[in-house]
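Input/output pair, single chain:
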Amino acid sequence: MTITGDIREPFDRLFGELRPKLHRYCARMTGSVIDGEDVLQEALAKAIEALPDVGPIANPEGWLFRIAHNAALDLLRRRAREKAFSGEDLDMIIDPANPTIEREAAAASLRTFMRLPVAQRCSVIMMDVLGYSLQQISVILDTSIPAIKAALHRGRGRLREIADEPEELPSPFLSTSERSLLEAYIDRFNAHDFDAVRDMLAEDVRLELVARTRLNGRKEVSTYFHNYSTRQDWRFVPGFVENRPAVLVCDPDPTAPPSYFILLAWQARLLGIRDFRHARYAADGAEMSVFREPSLE
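Output:
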């Protein structure tokens, strides 16, 4: 598939198809499904900006992944000024295909990937999580195959070491005020009392329906609740996503796990809503937990 710089429709279609796969990569590179979505959107904006002048694109998938990879690296540099592919042994030879290693990598938590150096992290994700070949990774990352082999060898070894270490997770915390606001929003939503929900909105509230649309201001955002009022495929539960207070959205079946989540931003009134209903791929690998009352024992 070749995309020319003046044809937007094939690009939009391809990006829609690749979006879950791109997010899976970005989330594991950044250690967060939420930051991964931010990087993904930044990559899309950069790709759209470049499209008119880039000329024919012979490998659109590789082109998009390279933009997403660079956007992820930009975020990581802003965080810690990490340098990719420094000091690797370029002569290391490995067996690139190993189903056992692939299963281990696919099951690793996002937090685990963050413990790998950037070079090792992106190589392991590309091959063992997303299934790209050495040749494809070389093109996407603009890196030599020996360098990728070295990074894979060391990254896989480090993942095995980490898997044997006990994982101590901090307990997520919800303040009394956060809990009160979150539970009030959820209770009103579950009761289909959308007028009461609208009363919680600030005048300058913003909504992002991820991968679909954005709305600004109380008047526009008020229309967002209509779709929920006409559907019965949801049940809101208070919880955490990556230790952040969140609305976890489940099927009405009380035994069903969360299928996606909604993030809320407050300042006395509701200032922001980020709804992942149309971006359920973000739940892949996300650390989600239901809020439970602290034990009195």
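Residues 176-290 form a domain with the Nuclear Transport Factor 2; Chain: A, fold (CATH 3.10.450.50). The first strand starts at residue 201 and ends at 209.
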